[in-house]
Design brief:
2 domains, 324 residues, TIM Barrel, alpha/beta
Length: 324
């Protein structure tokens, strides 16, 4: 078993946290990850109150292990925070925006505060805001993020915020990635794309199969899916998704898309309803290369952790004995 500050904080068996992906990480998936001995986070996304209550009821009913919730900071208000806190999550993750307005109420509720950042400056702000854990997210990640790569970002954040535990995120989908993150000084990983291709993920089966068929070069960072959905993401954040016909048509033509928005938005919504992924978005990170099947979340947690432990034990063999 791998023991870190993360596992000790939540009494976990594995140093793995489910990324709180909107429309993917529902209560069923979060509970399955927690039941396997990792930390499941419900993806509260933009803070729809009805959806939150449904999924938080579900996770609370399906696990006795620690679980949490994650929200997009720039899109929520205090009412949304209060609704989530009423369910007594063990952890609360804030991403993409200034966490300071909401940190006091989260901390006052006795909830561990996780803050995701994309650069060292925001990591220092997260430390001052009172983060119990900081996630260093590299640009390889699926969904929204910035431009720093995971490999150099993680140790830089570790050094900047010590002794606060750091999780690595972005481009990690197996035990090798977990082992590498630990060697960079992280206390665990936040994993998203791999769990999209899990039995319990909320996304449609067609999207899971498309993930399996895709490769890293099929993904790219873009704004076109946010434009068509009418979401005003701050300019510094783009989203990594699988390229499709909609992407190819509108990438580098964002101005034209804005002009055609009324017609394109209705067609896009129809595609989402129909599960037409030549138009609808599938957020995915560069780690899609490592995904070859749909597995249960519990199996993934146990396999990734066991593989990481094997990698760490095997690394000792790389150290040559001094010659006599």
């Amino acid at each position: 078993m791998i023991a870190t500050a993360l596992t000790e904080m939540f009494d976990l068996l594995h140093p793995i946290v489910l990324a709180p992906m909107g429309s993917v990480s529902g209560g069923e998936l979060a509970a399955a990850v927690s039941n396997a001995g990792a930390l499941g986070l419900v993806g509260g996304g933009y803070g729809d109150h009805g959806w939150l209550r449904t999924e938080l009821d579900r996770v609370r009913d399906r696990t006795q292990r620690p679980w949490g919730i994650g929200l997009i900071t720039w899109s929520i208000d205090q009412d949304t925070i209060d609704i989530a806190l009423a369910y007594s999550p063990a952890a609360f993750m804030l991403s993409f925006g200034d966490p300071r307005p909401y940190a006091p109420s989260i901390k006052a509720a006795g909830c561990k505060l996780i803050i995701q950042v994309q650069d060292v400056e925001d990591a220092r702000l997260a430390k001052h805001a009172g983060a119990d854990i900081i996630v260093a997210q590299g640009s390889e990640a699926g969904g929204h993020g910035c431009s720093r790569a995971t490999l150099p970002l993680v140790p830089a954040v570790v050094d900047a915020v010590a002794p606060i535990p750091v999780l690595a995120a972005g481009g990690i989908a197996d035990g090798r990635g977990l082992a590498a993150a630990l060697m960079l000084g992280a206390d665990g990983v936040l994993m998203g794309t791999r769990f999209c291709a899990s039995v319990e993920a909320m996304c449609k089966e067609a999207s899971k199969q498309r993930l399996i068929a895709s490769r890293a070069n099929d993904t790219a960072r873009t704004r076109v899916f946010d434009i068509v959905r009418g979401l005003s993401w701050p300019s510094e954040y783009t989203g990594r998704a699988i390229r499709n016909s909609f992407f190819e048509r509108w990438e580098h033509r964002e101005g034209d898309l804005t002009v055609a928005l009324v017609m394109e938005r209705e067609k896009y919504r129809a595609a989402v309803r129909a599960g037409d992924y030549d138009t609808a978005v599938i957020w995915a990170g560069e780690a899609v290369d490592l995904i070859d099947r749909v597995e249960s979340a519990g199996t993934l947690v146990e396999q990734i952790s066991a593989d990481a432990e094997s990698q760490l034990r095997g690394a000792a063999d790389l150290i040559a004995s001094p010659s006599r």
